[in-house]
Amino acid sequence: MDSRRKKENVPFRIKAKVLIDGTELGDVAKACGVSYDIGMEARSVCGEEIAGEEANDIIQDITYVAILKEYDRDVTIEKPENYDPSLFYCTCQSHLCVDPQEKNRQWECDYMMRYGKLPNGKYMINWPIEGNDYYLNIIEMTPEERKEALKEAKNRTLSYLYYLQTALGFHTLGLADDEFPTEDKLPFIPYHRESRRIHGLSGSI
């Protein structure tokens, strides 16, 4: 690449026979004009009985996965903005849980923590049962819109951490200070379970 053009941010064209899109959400593919789908297809596409009659743009939840570490002191964080403990009452067995979303998956709180147990006294917090999963569809948003929207997902994880520390007594577990080189100790990006689905080429080989 011409170093002058790179420094001056001058637009240029690149031609390639193969382009690998390494983005989380297929942003390069979209920029190249590739056709794609988002969300759930209609039942008529694949014939799945559990699929709806009509297509929609609903995707799976995303998660800002937190890595917690055992400290030798109380490391309870400040109460996050708009903290609502009722969101987490049914994250594990509790007398506060009266109407669980998933009645067949109510486990003891210690089991919930063992689910993400890591070596060296660390825990992965990626809990789907009324935990830190968060529904947010940012696929077609601009980078600026995504940045603002993802603050909500981060807040859900921090709120969940605060609940674990204050309501469930895990006050010596805090965000690991030796995992991610970020100011908030959370990952650079959330865990995206679903992206654009590119319309690829198919046929016999």
How would you describe this protein?
The protein is an alpha+beta fold and 205 residues long. Helix content is 22%, strand content 11%. The protein has helices at 3-8, 27-31, 43-46, 109-114, 143-166, and strands at residues 36-37, 62-63, 66-70, 117-118, 122-125, 133-134, 173-175, 197-198. It has a 4-stranded antiparallel sheet with strand order 4-5-3-7, with helices on one face. The protein has a two-stranded antiparallel ribbon with strand order 1-8. The longest helix has 24 residues, at 143-166.
- Rg over CA atoms: 21 Å
Question: Which range does the strand content fall in?
Answer: 5-15%
What's the oligomerization state?
single chain
Low-confidence stretches: none
Strand order of the largest sheet: 4-5-3-7
**Proportion of helical residues:** 10-25%
Shape category: globular
Number of helical segments with 4 or more residues: 5
**Average pLDDT metric:** 91
Cα-to-Cα separation, first versus last residue: 37 Å
Largest sheet: 4 strands, antiparallel
Number of strands: 8
Structural class: alpha+beta
Q: What is the chain-wise order of helices and strands? A: HHEHEEHEEEHEE
